[in-house]
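Priority: medium. Attachment 1 of 2:
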């Protein structure tokens, strides 16, 4: 029998880091969840979808938060009116890059011994790879100018491959180009959690300027 966990009784205030356009604003961060009774818990972002984000609290409760139910209070706080019940058996077992114990490693970063350095090297290498391979003339061709922001999200599989790649951009052609480039990324050394190879969730902002 499937078990559901419900926390509809709560009204939450979620402290977030507004770094990139919704729905990819979380960038793998752990949010501080404030319950209506005044207590606070940390919650891990499991998945970020078009219509909802899925968060798991440290007490084991899991919830979908519909984006239509979120109201901005100020630049740092968001108010959630209601939470849906979630079938926990269907939760994607992906660990956000920010909190994974042993991060996926980009080729060449394995020479570093410190895990924090490996993580930073992997992030820098992914940014560099995308920057070097992205066709920026597409933005010019479709008449865009100024700062261009593309929000990409993908999983690094337990085999080190980029899968479930998604992108949001000012134009479909830019989204397609972002996905094309990310599909070219060479295999990484997969990440590990609790001694086991796991899927890792990664959010990548792609930024460039068109004069």
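Attachment 2 of 2:
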């Amino acid at each position: 029998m499937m078990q559901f966990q419900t926390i509809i009784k709560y009204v939450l205030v979620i402290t977030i880091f507004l770094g990139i356009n919704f729905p990819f604003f979380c960038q793998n961060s752990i949010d501080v969840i404030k319950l209506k009774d005044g207590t606070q818990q940390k919650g891990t972002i499991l998945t970020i979808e078009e219509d909802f984000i899925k968060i798991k609290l440290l007490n084991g409760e899991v919830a979908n938060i519909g984006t239509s139910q979120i109201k901005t209070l100020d630049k740092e706080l968001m108010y959630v009116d209601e939470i849906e019940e979630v079938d926990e058996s269907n939760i994607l077992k992906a660990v956000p890059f920010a909190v994974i114990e042993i991060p996926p490693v980009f080729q060449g970063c394995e020479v570093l011994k410190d895990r924090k350095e490996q993580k930073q090297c992997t992030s820098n290498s992914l940014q560099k790879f995308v920057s070097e391979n992205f066709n920026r003339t597409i933005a010019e061709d479709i008449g865009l100018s100024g700062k261009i922001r593309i929000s990409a999200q993908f999983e690094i599989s337990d085999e080190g491959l980029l899968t479930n790649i998604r992108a949001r951009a000012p134009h479909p052609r830019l989204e397609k180009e972002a996905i094309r480039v990310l599909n070219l990324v060479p295999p990484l050394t997969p990440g590990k959690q609790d001694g086991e190879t796991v899927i890792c969730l990664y959010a990548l902002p792609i930024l460039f300027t068109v004069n």
